[in-house]
Amino acid sequence: MDYISTRGSAPALDFEGATLAGLASDGGLYVPSAWPRFSEDEIRSMRGLPYAKLAARVMQPFVGESLTPARLLELCEAAYGRFSHKAVTPLVQLDEQNWLMELFHGPTLAFKDVALQLLGLLFEEFLSRSDRNLTIVGATSGDTGSAAIDAVAGRAKVDVFMLHPKGRVSDVQRRQMTTVLAPNVHNLALEGVSFDECQAIVKRMFNDRAVTDRFAIGAVNSINWARLMAQVVYYFATALQLGAPDRVVAFSVPTGNFGDVFAGYVAQQMGLPIEKLIVATNVNDILHRALASGDYSQGTVTPTAAPSMDIQVSSNFERLLFDLGGREGSALAAQMAGFEASKAMQLTNAQREGAAKLFASCRADADEMAHSIRWAWENSGELIDPHTACALHGARTSGISPEVPVVTLATAHPAKFPEAVERATGQRPGLPSRVGDLFEREERCANVPGAYETVAEYVTAHAVPKG
């Protein structure tokens, strides 16, 4: 399996190369050169597999010769052995049509663990084959940072620098990052910026020759293909439990950066029968506007109770636009250059028509978010976090046929956002015992002005050269 850039001019890489590179050298994102596809019989044969075995089966076509099937299975068993629920991503039924896919049973209580526990092991595996040191630079609006840090803390040949917008993540999210005191972990709270600006700094660093000539810069954000690949698995796991491939399933996905829902698109391209993917946003609704009217225009980020969705530039949307636009890298490069210059663009007719075949979208404001949290508690006895609530709002207003089960992705444990949940339900969710002492741990974090030059200076002063 070769990986090509969405912008057409970076060299093709194998799975190992794409995993370590993260962002392509032309500023694009790596995608497989073709989508592997399972037959209905092959999908049926996956029924009943333990999660780690299912993961290895689904991901093997993407891995190619970079890992043997036996080694991939070993890594999957190690990654998912750390989850508190044996099913890894269990299903919970809310009513006749609506289900929750619980993605928060990993070490940091968020869906990012499903991919990043594996990605940390992949980094270690591939780096062990050379003398290379990897400098991971990432941006987080909340959950990616803690999941990435947990996955790579203390691992050899890896340093991680995680940028977050100061004051714009929850207390739990911040502490899950800043209380990890491993020497290879560096938390940077950027002052006076949004997540989008943090992410722009990360992307600029990937293309700064003064940095990349000295350091091997790698990615843990969903710009890294390996992370998306691991997220494809739970769509298969859930659909199989609900009758696939002999029954179609719909999914409602809370999203900011478009990575989680793009994994669903990949699953559908691989043969999984998905009726609809609902892209659920909060009031930072660039994706809703793009899918509903073709208007992909950056607005001002509005802080909400769902901070991981407070985003106005969705990096992974580029992968979908590339696929729907006929995989013409030069055309997409020009389209994205226009967006980066003007902060606005219109989707082409091909992109809009292609997206409409599978995607729907919705926008949830603060009242709708709170109403969904309250509905889940009063009708099903389930506490859900604000991000999940946006997606549940989309699921319950989607108009999808009652015969089609609709699965809402529950992307974070409600205890990560206790104030919002308590306001809506009167119930304050407690942290699971495995992280119950979080607020008693020592914190370590550097407060840094939100300018590229300052961040680059900090990273280059503390990182280990590539070797």
UniProtKB/TrEMBL annotation:
One GO MF term attached to the UniProt entry: threonine synthase activity
Keyword field contains Nucleotide-binding: no
Record field: catalytic activity: O-phospho-L-homoserine + H2O = L-threonine + phosphate
Domain Threonine synthase N-terminal: 3-80
UniProt keyword terms in alphabetical order: Amino-acid biosynthesis, Lyase, Pyridoxal phosphate, Threonine biosynthesis
E.C. no: 4.2.3.1
Cofactor(s) this protein cannot do without: pyridoxal 5'-phosphate
Residues covered by the Tryptophan synthase beta chain-like PALP domain: 87-330
Annotated TM spans: none
Pathway: Amino-acid biosynthesis; L-threonine biosynthesis; L-threonine from L-aspartate: step 5/5
Similarity comment: family membership: Belongs to the threonine synthase family.
Name the record gives this protein: Threonine synthase
